[in-house]
Write a structure and sequence with these properties.
single chain, about 210 residues, alpha+beta, Elongation Factor Tu (Ef-tu), domain 3, 2 domains, 6-stranded antiparallel barrel, 4 helices, globular
Length: about 210
């Protein structure tokens, strides 16, 4: 489990093909301090497992499915990525609960400067849009952000200059893709309502 508070921006050092996927080698500093082989690490919001550590680099294996469903398949050496270690139970929850399971790919459709902030517009698939609520949370490339506006297949977020400086959103351009993970709580609420409705129908049939 993660919080969506990015700890540092890492750099892709190598991408090596292997059976069923690739191995990413990533350069970092902060996330390597107490990392062990087998630990989870969020790369652009996708939860992966550290399979090799050779400071100042670590490697993580990425399956074919993850490559297909996230923007990790578009990475190349030299690209920057958002990195976050898993949440400790004793940590402050600065963002929101992020599972590291990407729900879909979004596309940056607009960027508007407003003083020291930027308003970003994203196009998102319906499997993400259905969970969005005004002032609710969403993880974009692993970054915990607040939804400020919702349209049919688009939504807006506002980022401050600090977020632009310390994450990859500050170097993104219109047309680029991002990983999206909707709020976990919304998914549980949806499942609860579906199960409850099904149970009520079964009871009605029995009567």
């Amino acid at each position: 489990m993660f919080t969506g508070i990015i700890e540092e921006v890492g750099i892709i050092k190598e991408i090596r093909s292997q059976s069923g996927g690739v191995r990413l080698t990533v350069g970092g500093k902060i996330v390597l301090k107490d990392m062990k082989i087998g630990d989870s690490i969020a790369i652009n919001g996708a939860c992966l497992t550290a399979t090799e550590i050779k400071t100042p680099h670590f490697s993580a294996d990425v399956s074919g499915e993850t490559l297909d469903k996230t923007n990790l398949g578009k990475l190349k050496p030299g690209d920057k990525v958002n990195l976050e270690r898993p949440l400790r139970l004793s940590d402050r929850l600065g963002g929101h609960l992020v599972a590291g399971h990407v729900d879909g790919i979004g596309i940056i459709r607009g960027m508007t400067k407003k003083g020291d902030t930027s308003i970003l517009t994203f196009e998102a698939p319906k499997e993400v849009m259905k969970y969005l609520v005004y002032k609710g949370s969403i993880a974009i490339d692993g970054i915990s952000l607040t939804v400020n506006d919702i349209q049919r297949n688009r939504f807006n977020v506002t980022i401050i200059s600090h977020t632009a400086r310390t994450t990859t959103l500050g170097i993104k351009k219109i047309g680029e893709i991002v990983n999206l993970e909707a709020d976990l709580i919304g998914k549980y609420v949806e499942n609860f309502l579906i199960v409850t409705h099904a149970d009520e129908k079964d009871v009605g049939t029995d009567l």
